[in-house]
Amino acid sequence: MTPEIDDAFEAIEKEYGVGSIDRVRQMLDPAGQDRHPQQKNAKWIMPGLSKKPWHDPYEHPETAAVVRAFEAGHADIKKELADAWSQSRPSFTDYEHYLSTQSDWQALYLFRDGAPVPESAQVVPTAFRILDEYAIQTSTHCPLLESHFSTLLPGASVKPHCDLWNFSINLHLAVDVPEGCGIRVGDEAREWVEGKCLLFDYSFEHEAWNKGDGLRTCLLVDLWHPETTLAERAALTTLITEIRLLLGDQ
Fold first, then answer.
1. Burial level of 113, CB count in 10 A (0-12/13-18/19+)?
2. pTM of this structure
């Protein structure tokens, strides 16, 4: 903890009440991190959040609104993505995961480094508009992370890993999915259904693969875990931003 974090936490508790961010404080104590065995390699586990790898995309009103908007826009999103792949390839880059960089995993970013990527509004306008209207403006999107089109080339795979924390969850809109593609989260593997969303907790071990002959593209959006409170989201944003500054990641 730094003086800046202490001051920010104090201000948040004044606004939301004493005890409003106790779970965030408990998260910082490794002894207090009660985690599922398949979350063992995640860096932070905030206590009190449901320990389930897969979430029902329509269960929580906050996330369901985002899911339905992306699913309704799928046809236009798919067309714009195909045009971008054929006409704007420099917009795609090797995906830079915090663990590695893969050339057979391409990304086109809509939100990165704490802000929307304005160039993407011209390349993939429908996805950019829906992300802004239904996720960013409603504060459902987790600004600590990102949103991007994720394209796995034929034969590509994402090795089993845990992401950093459990207080945000990952939405996948299946934009263009050939046969032979799948994803495992925890002990359960699923297939993407084109035009539909999957929602999962990526603090659980997960992996993905494209054993098909075509490109597998999903739109990935990082959303706050629906069981986090506004006070906790404010505290977590302050905490992670300050840690990144200290580590020179921003």
1. exposed
2. 0.93
